[in-house]
Amino acid sequence: MKTVSLAAGALALAVAASSNAALVYGGGTETGSRFNAGAGAITYMNCFTAVGAGDTQLSLESAIVGIRRLATAGALLDVGINIYAAEMTYDGTNFGRGADYLIYSSASLGGGAASVTQFVNTGAVSGVTLNLELASNAGLGGWWIGVEFTGVNAANTANGWRVVNAPVTGSSINAFGIFNNAGSGVFQSFFAFGTPPGSSPSRMMVDVNGSLVPAPGAIALLGLAGIVGRRRR
């Protein structure tokens, strides 16, 4: 794993066909790799979706992450998991993490005897509306989905977030962020696999369902525009 610096004009987003369905990001095919950032660290996958005029927020409905679990001595090593949704920030050079929400937590992914990619579903998420990052890529809005392993086996790499290829729905940078990497206590982006960084698949498996909505102020302005239009007629 290596860090990579990406300028706004060279983000190398993998852009897929837009969809009006509830799925706003996801569908990448699995590779043979997985990633575990270690105990106390949260790995964040960048997610982008196409936005229309006035769409500035994502009302999150649910998310599914794929966790690759390898059987050791005929058994899966149990681990806990936290899943986060976070706002993405961008200062013209660097991407950061804004408001962060814990949307799922389980102390145990359960047992089993065979290696598997286990799909962890948050179920219905309520009350989480993310302000989208709109400055870095015209026509796209971005946010983060984070995974943290917990419990006594948190750092054991028998469990890891599955690495995938480019999404089928939505867009992404072939890289990821980490909060508290090696105990740093800060959020950093971007990290990527391969030499040079990003030459190997560096996206994490996640499907996100949600609805794009205008900010409250934009809704009010749209209503006012309609009133003005009627008066002119």
Q: Sheet with the most strands?
A: 8 strands, antiparallel
Q: How many E-type strands? A: 19
Provide the number of structural domains. 1
SS-based class: mainly beta
Mean pLDDT: 89
Envelope shape: globular
Straight-line N-to-C gap: 61 Å
Poorly predicted segments: 5-10, 17-21, 218-233
CA gyration radius, whole angstroms: 19 Å
Chain-wise SSE layout:
Elements: E1 2-3, E2 14-15, E3 23-25, E4 30-35, E5 42-50, E6 55-69, E7 71-72, E8 75-76, E9 80-90, E10 95-106, E11 116-121, E12 129-131, E13 140-150, E14 159-164, E15 171-172, E16 176-179, E17 187-192, E18 203-204, E19 206-214, H1 216-232
Please supply descriptive tags for the structure shown above.
mainly beta; 233 residues; eight-stranded antiparallel beta sheet; seven-stranded antiparallel beta sheet; disordered C terminus; 19 strands; 1 helix
Describe the protein.
The chain is mainly β and 233 residues long. It has one domain (2-232). It has one helix and 19 strands. The strands form four sheets. Strands 3, 4, 6, 11, 12, 14, 18 and 19 form an eight-stranded antiparallel sheet that branches. A seven-stranded antiparallel sheet has the order 1-17-16-5-13-9-10, with no helix packed on it. A hairpin with a 4-residue loop joins β9 (80-90) and β10 (95-106). The longest helix is centred in the C-terminal third of the chain and has 17 residues, at 216-232. It starts with a strand and ends with a helix. Mean pLDDT is 89; it is low at 5-10, 17-21 and 218-233.
